[in-house]
Amino acid sequence: MSLTVFTAAVGVVILLFILELLRRRQIREKYAALWIVVLVAVVPLALFPRISDPIAHALGVASGVSLALFGGFVFLLLVCIHLSWEMSRLEEETRTLAEEIALIRTRLDEKGQVER
Amino acid sequence: MTTQRILMILPAWNEADSIGNVIGEIREVLPTVDILVVDDGSTDKTAQLAAEAGAKVAKLPYNLGVGGARRLGYKYAREHGYDVAVQFDSDGQHDPRYVPALVAALDSADLVIGARFAGEGDYQARGPRRWAMSLLSGVLSRVAKHKLTDTTSGLRVVARPLIDVYATWYPVEYLGDTIDTLAHVARGGYRVVQVPVTMRPRAGGVASANPFKSTVYLGRAVLVIVMALLRKRDV
C-alpha cells in the first residue's frame, strides 16, 4: 500500500469516527464541524500531495508537504490553546455552582434549625 | 461598632486541630459578631467542630482554594445584609483583639488591611521573598495613594460596597486573593488603608525560606501585579 493511500485511509477512518460520535450525540456540533472541515481538506491532500505546491510556492515554501506540516502544527497548537481557554471557563462555572450549592445548603440548615 | 452587623469569614480546609480554639477565642473577645466558617472540602471534622463551637458553617462540596471559599463568604454576607465583613484565618495566625481597631478604621476607608511591618511585631523576610514583598507594597501603595507595607496580609475588613464587589468577583488564583483584589479595588477608586497588627506564628507549618521557591514566588508576584495593572478598570 502506498503512503498516499495509507494517509488518505487514516483520514477517512477518523472522519467516519467523528461522524459516528456526532450520530450518538457524544460530541458537540461546534467541535465536530471543526474536525470534519479539517479531514475533508486532508483526504484530497493525502491522495494528491502536489495540489498544494502552487500555494506553497506563492508563500516561498519549497514544497506543499512542508507547508501542510507547518500548518498542521500551528493548527494543533491553536486547538490546544482553545481547549485551555474552554477549561478555564468551565472551571469558573463549576466553581460558581459549588458556591451556590453551599449557600443553598447553609440556608436549608438554618431553616431546619428554626422549624425544630 | 455596636450597631453594625459584622460577619467574620473563616475559610477552613482540614483545620480540625485549630478551628475550635480559634472560634472560641473570637466569641470570647467579640461576643456580638457572627462567625461563618467556610469548609473548603475538608475531609476531617472541621465543619462539625466549627458548628459545635458556635459558628455558622457553609460547606463547599469540594476544595476550591482560599479564593473560592472567601467569595462564598462574601456572597453569604451580601445575602444576609451584613454591614461589615472581616476576612480572618482559621489557623490561629490572626488575633481577634485587633478587629475593633480595623473596623473603626472603616470610617475613612472601604478596605482596611491588618498589616505587619508597620511598627507592630517583628516579622522578617529575606531574599527574593523580601524583594517581592517590597515590590508589591511599592507598586500598590502608589496605586492606592496610601502607604501599604503588607499587601499579602489575609487579615482584612471591608464595608458594604466591597462586600458586593467581592461577592461577584474574587479571584481563585494563587496571590489573586491578596494582590489582585487589592489592585482591583484601589484602581476602582475605593479607599484602602492599613492598621498595624502583630501576627502569631502559625499553628502548623512555616513560611517557606527555600530560595528556589522564593524566586518562583517573586516571578508569580511580578506576573500578578503586571496583569492586575494591565486590566481594564471595571469595578
Q: Characteristics of this structure?
A:
heterodimer, A: 116 residues, mainly alpha, 2 domains, 84% helix, B: 235 residues, alpha/beta, Spore Coat Polysaccharide Biosynthesis Protein SpsA, Chain A, seven-stranded mixed sheet, 8 helices, 43% helix, globular, transferase activity (chain B), transferase (chain B), Glycosyltransferase_2 (chain B), Glyco_trans_2-like (chain B)
What does the model show?
The complex is a heterodimer of chains A (116) and B (235). Chain A has helices at 3-23, 29-47, 53-58, 64-115. Chain A has 116 residues and is mostly helical. In chain A, helix 1 (3-23) runs antiparallel to helix 2 (29-47). Chain B is an alpha/beta fold and 235 residues long. Chain A binds chain B through residues 95, 98-99, 101-103, 105-106, 109-110, and chain B through 38, 56-62, 64, 68, 71-72, 75-76, 79, 172. Chain A: This is DUF2304 domain-containing protein. Chain A: InterPro entries: DUF2304. Chain A: The chain crosses the membrane at residues 6-22, 31-49, 55-81.
List the helices and strands and how they pair.
The complex is a heterodimer of chains A (116) and B (235).
Chain A: H1 3-23, H2 29-47, H3 53-58, H4 64-115
Helix pairs in contact in A: 1-2
Chain B: E1 6-12, H1 16-29, E2 34-39, H2 46-52, E3 56-59, H3 66-79, E4 84-87, H4 99-104, E5 111-115, H5 127-144, E6 156-159, H6 160-168, H7 176-187, E7 192-196, H8 211-230
Parallel strand pairs in B: 1-2, 1-4, 2-3, 5-7
Antiparallel strand pairs in B: 4-6, 5-6
Helix pairs in contact in B: 1-2, 3-6, 5-7, 5-8, 7-8
